Amino acid sequence: MQVVMESKKPFWHRFEAEYRTIMLPSYDGTELFTQVLSQTPDSKGPVVVIRSPYELVDAPPPEFFEGYLADLVDDGYVIVYQHCRGCGKSDGECVPYLNERQDGLALLEWIRKQPFYAEEIFLTGGSYLSSVHLSYLNAAGDDIKGAVLAVQDCNRYNILYRNGFFKCGLHGSWAVGMYKKKQLTKKNFTKDSFRIFPLNALSKTVFGEENPLLTEEFCHPDPADPFWETPEGGKEYKHALENLKFPVLFTTSFYDIYTEGVIDMWEKLSPESREKCALVVTPYSHAYLGNANVVIPYKNGALEDMWPHFQNDWFNSIREKRPPRFVTPGCVTWHAQHEALWRTAPHLDNGPKAKTFFLNDRTLEVESAPEEKIDFTYNPYNPAEFKGGCCNNFEGQQLQDAPDSRYDIISFLTKVLEKDMVLQGRGEVVLKVASDCEDTCFYARLSYINSAGECYCLRDDIVSLRGQHPDYTPGTAVEIKLNFAPNAVRIAQGEQLRLDISSSCWPYFLPHRNKVGNYWEMESAAIARNTIFTGSSKLTLFER
Questions:
Q1: Could you report the per-residue pLDDT of 291-341, keeping only the tens digit for each?
Q2: What CA–CA distance (Å, rounded) separates 202 from 247?
Q3: 257: closest CA among 339, 335, 174?
Q4: Which residues, at least 6 apart from 453, have a Cβ–Cβ distance to it below 8 Å?
Q5: CA-based Rg of the chain, rounded to a whole angstrom?
Q6: Distance CA 390, CA 255 (A)
Q7: How far is CA 272 from CA 126, 150, 244, 281, 335, in A?
Q8: Which of 76, 79, 103, 468 is deepest in the core (most CB within 10 A)?
Q9: How does pLDDT run across 387-398, given as a tens digit for each residue?
């Protein structure tokens, strides 16, 4: 272990903090840049562990830790902040997910031998900074007393795929940027790199070498594939929350990249675990706090405004054996969009009243019209583009293009609402469809149009024919179901709902090739003629 700096420097106006940086050997001898912050050189107290892959090569000065970390130090916590392997000032190669479990466990063992250790460890982080903790959670030890795990799904399949469709707009460019980020500083990559044929040439084209982990992930689009129960497929992450022994504050947002996954994590907790945990759902995106760069500034929607110093309060409530200030253990607390209020309940359930709209002739109606057909061409070489990743990809809620903006986007609209519609819970679209290809896909995007004529996306889903009808015969009419993640939003009087149906959503999902087989190996795509049967297709939502 090499201590590269140890000094007592002016650190905020409240006190002078002890600030040390250490090159700490991990399990295999690779040295990881680690920082320790405490009130004084002799401070001993609960330790907060943070591991990040996003730091710069230049070590940040103490002032970098102003904000919530300063608040934690002010409350007597000792901060241990480590740059992940191959990131920032740490040595080694960054291959996402590969070494986080061993590196994290090695850091915990080192902490337990330090004079500042007081037999209490707390974990915090958002997105990948949460994943690093999930990797070792089931082996972390009884001295882990609590955690804040923000905007991250524990299921690696969900991070990469939606119903077998690779999430280019989530894992794609992120994975490319992270892989050997310090060694391969120049990569031959644009978003269109995922459209090359065959796709198995991607790794050598982009990196100039094989990336075994990315290659392997592309070969397993089926969630039931045994790969997802291996360490390489994220087994430790997937089962991290089983038999959870300590309180965790989970957070997500309605337009986060992991909305549905985090809510599913909550539902899968054992009743005993869930009663001491809490889940917060804000109205924003992966930047879940909602205090900057928001598309729609929801009144009373910023978590830090509603619950100042929420990490301190959550950790302190555990140590002081008292209720936290804003949330209720055992419950979900969510922001009801355009109602300017927060609701709390054990589950974010569907509203009691189902509301069904039939897809008629470019309209959404409460009564079905006689069945008719709308045909459109789906060309994988020129996929339909959309704006905003809704809750499955980055960029969340965004302003949408006009209805029927392309020949392969079919838009259906309600009449202007005569009264408010308060939606809560999930939704689904049942489409009667057909195709002249042996396989293809259908995409649905739900949006709303406000009184100013602006259209903002709410939810989306994508499915393949063969995914729901394994023996599909070209030309056959079948029903398929698309499912929307939970939401809570008021659509006001004078506004409208809009449903777009297409067969692609670029650049968020990998375009379907309209063929049967492993798309990783396909050297070409087919052009499909797809059909929607109106009058027989419907959208169902739930009202409070």
A1: 888 999 999 999 999 999 999 999 999 999 999 999 999 999 999 999 999
A2: 42
A3: 174
A4: none
A5: 25
A6: 5
A7: 24, 21, 9, 21, 25
A8: 103
A9: 999 999 999 999
